[in-house]
Amino acid sequence: MAVKLIVENCTGCRLCLRACPYGAVDITEGKANFNDSCTQCGACATSCKFGAILLEVAFSRDVDTTQYRGVWVVAESAPGGRGEFRRGTYELLGKGRELADKRGTGLSAVLFGDQVEGLAQRLIAFGADKVYLAQDPVLAHYRTGPYTDVLAGMINQHKPEIVLVSATPQGRDLAPRVAARISAGLTADCTGLDIDESEGLLVQTRPAFGGNLMATIVCRQARPQMATVRPGVMKALQPDSSRAGEVVAVPVHLDERGVAAKIIEIVQQEGDGQVNLQDAQIIVSGGRGLGKPENFSLIRELADALRGAVGASRAAVDAGWIPAYHQVGQTGRTVQPKLYIACGISGAVQHLAGMGSSDVIVAINKDPSAPIFSVATYGIVGDLFEIVPALTKKLREVL
Fold first, then answer.
1. Domains of the chain, start order
2. 167 contacts 191 by C-beta, under 8 angstroms
3. Residue 58 pLDDT more than 80?
């Protein structure tokens, strides 16, 4: 990969100067030129309006894979500025630690933000050996452009062999943009990761054809090997505050004027829009057995009594009883709460794959042969319209 200047097209407009996050562009005698700080991130090429800067990408077969070493996890902060990360970040650190150990290499985390250096030690406590810290006011809130520019430059400079990103809305936006920028392979929505012992490649597993089969994917040529991973399918390590690690400051200089998307206001949605199944510790889900959408009020009341989130099966979502962001399963959210209560859910394979890793599963169904009972910690055979209200009433008395 290389950035190439077509001198005759350059007007000296300085747009590339504003766009470059690494201070690698100088304007000399009315023309742009690149200094030794250039990471080939491509930000200048995307900003140029005159076709004066081209980003030349090497064919994957020409990439020297021996130059790439190490496992990276891109950290994602939880909303609200509470000094926490999304659950998927901790899960990726746990899996990244396992992969790095199998490869005999280090595990690094990438942290973006503004004045977030205090969070670096938490990433180390959860398994990282090193944290690459990029801070700038422009990075305070996620936007595709600056995050892509900075991360692409860091990858080009340090050459990790594996880059893992959580398959949240942010990760699903960022990872393909970066992969396209650096001409890397990307497997989306993985539910399993491992190292092939014979070739040392990342083995990536993801559902395909609506969850009816599992695809196994390897990337033999392009680097890094990139994957987005569904939150809720990996296990986080227990934090160790005594772990020592290195924090590497990545000097970036971003100009707000060079960012296309502007944040005018951050609005927190109210009501059901706040549901975050992947971070929930308690989930109460309803299925086809509820009979009609109005009966989801029983599920909401039980979830409120437990201070949990409301989930649903695909059948309930497809019937239009509840919005799709409540769906649990391979085609919805993969979850791993401490307590999962399934009400009127028979237990299709896709649903079981999405919640089967929950710590405790309680199934309520009138059909004793329902597949949900095969994964349930506790099963209640009976009428949910009698059991759920009684359970809600009792919980409100004791909680």
1. 2-56 (3.30.70.20), 62-254 (3.40.50.620), 271-398 (3.40.50.1220)
2. no
3. no
